[in-house]
Amino acid sequence: MPAVEKSDLIVYTRYDCAYCDALKHDLDHAGTEYQEINIIDHPEYQELVEKLAGGERITPVMVEGDKVVVGYRGIGCAY
């Protein structure tokens, strides 16, 4: 996998996911720094995202340290 820029918060997204867009909008509005990894552009992360989501194929997935949040306000986009 390619190196990820230094950031405490990583957000895994896809282009066709409205919940990814909503999450990024909220993070941007709050001034929260994050590293976005789009799994369409970086398919090598799809297996990791699926594992983080408990075997589900859902985005967005947000990771900060040991904390993993799947979906946006409890809802995500299946792929």
Protein model, in words:
The chain is of the alpha+beta class and 79 residues long. It has one domain (9-70): Glutaredoxin (3-Layer(aba) Sandwich), CATH 3.40.30. It has 2 helices and 6 strands; from the N terminus they run E-H-E-H-E-E-E-E. The strands form 2 sheets. The protein has a 4-stranded mixed sheet, covered by helices on one side. Strands 3-6 form a two-stranded antiparallel ribbon. Helix 1 links the parallel strand 1 and strand 2. The model has no long low-confidence stretch (mean pLDDT 92).
In a nutshell, what does this entry contain?
By secondary structure, this protein is of the alpha+beta class. The chain is built from 2 helices and 6 strands; from the N terminus they run βαβαββββ. 23% of the residues are buried.
Number of helices: 2
**End-to-end Cα distance:** 21 Å
Q: Report the portion of residues in β strands.
A: 25-35%
Please indicate the count of domains: 1
Structural class: alpha+beta
Mean pLDDT: 92
What shape does the CA trace take?
globular
Low-confidence stretches: none
Q: What pattern of helices and strands is seen along the backbone?
A: EHEHEEEE
**CATH class descriptor name:** Alpha Beta
Q: CATH homologous superfamily - what is it?
A: Glutaredoxin
Q: Any idea what the CATH architecture is?
A: 3-Layer(aba) Sandwich
List the helices and strands and how they pair.
Blueprint: E1 9-13, H1 18-29, E2 35-38, H2 46-52, E3 58-59, E4 61-64, E5 67-70, E6 77-78
